[in-house]
Amino acid sequence: MQMPRDSFPTDWSPPPVEFLNKHKKAPPARRRPLEDLEKNPPDPNQKAELASLEELFWNMAGPSQQAGTPEISSGGSQCYINNLDYLLQEKRMLVEKFSVSLQVISTVHPGETVFLPRRHPLPYFLDSSRLKPHSPLEELFLRSSLPEQLSFLHNGLLSNLYLHAADCPQPLLQWLFQLLTWPPETSSRAFGLLWDLSIDGLFRQPDEDMHFWCPSLQEVKEVFSSLGAYNPALYPQGPFQHSSRVLESEASLDSQDPPQEVALDIKLSYIYRFLILCLLVRPVSYTDASILSLMELLCRAGLDVGLCLLPKTDLQQLLLLLLERIQEWPGKLQPLCCALSWVSDHHHNLLALVQFFLDVTPRGRQLRSQLSLAIIARMLGQQESLPFSGEKTQLTLLSQLLSLMRPSSLRQCLGIETLPSSPGQQSKASAELDHKVCYLCHSLLTLAGVVVSSQDITPNQWGELQLLCMQLDRHISTHIRESPQAMHRTKLKDLATQTYIRWQDLLAHCQPQGQYFSPWKDV
What pTM was estimated for this model as a whole? Predict the structure, then answer.
């Protein structure tokens, strides 16, 4: 028996497409039959529950989704409103949440304005009043003007006159040393001739009456002054501008010069190398007082803002050699550290100054440690209350200073000035103050690491180092709150963590005394 086939529908009209009507909402996922709605209308309490759930859903959706929802007018027709206020509010909240501060702790010190640029070098004239010429060529040279004498130097005629002579006149050596401050084309030739004449004199003179010319401290100060250096003690209001009045003949000399910073570095290298030669040939060339003044002058020059990114190899070797030439050691250690701790007012510059001294000799290690303590004490205002005597060890002094390096304490010291009245300016000033605090704490903590690394940790110092670790974690590490808007805090936190790990490693390799493990030993 065959089943009857379904008859083909006679109504070809499409089904109603109600979701395309603009005045209706999207249908729910599950709809009740029309007959059921007519027989059992929804309860009023159920309507209230659905309305409260809908309101709760849109409140949880956020401002952007609320702004994107259509609003229905009272007349029944719908209009879409793009609420830009909500979009801007959400964008500002996202920017504040995920923004990163541009204030970071720089790895390069800011430097000091030590050397001012000169358009033309100072004219130096050879003092030939007491010189007697030995040949017509030498007589012509001594009677010539400054440009003509410089042409003798550039053409190599001075080497023919004095390189293998029986005695080189000292005024000529002084003149060549002064010409080291001229542009590189002249200074390079002056340095080469000065070096050759000095070395040649060593081989021609017997050891018992060897005469080697070394510039005095005053002559060194004069060449630094001719390079553009100024004395802050004489000019407390700031650096002065040098006069541009020069000889007309100077304008035609050395017209093609390298960049100012490179040219200054080249001239200083010539001066440093010749002073190194002087100290090697004549170890007692300078007194202790002259050495301390010379080291202060050299350290100040090394902090010039134009030399921050350039290597300091010649300067470091000269400082190390001067340190070894001090006769009354360690009696001169404390006055030297006190003088060097006031070379600059910026903590990062003083940290760079400590790094000028290499950690390769016992004196270098002592100076690095003592100078770091002096700088920390000065930055914390404790240079008078903490005398650096032999009664307390350096780790004990550092322990007293480390408790004052808490960021909250530094914030009170740096935030003495009154904050602005407007809220926006107060927020900006507070952020800048937080950056200054972290920057200062970073330099002080780096100096503290230099103090510890310069020590030969013995079992007697195990307890002092352990106390330093506890204070580092208590006063600094636990007070740093990292934030994406303050990357300087993260860098300070990383330094504190690395310092703590390094000190713990020293504790692990240092065998402590029995008293730290057996407190009841003497009972």
Answer: 0.75
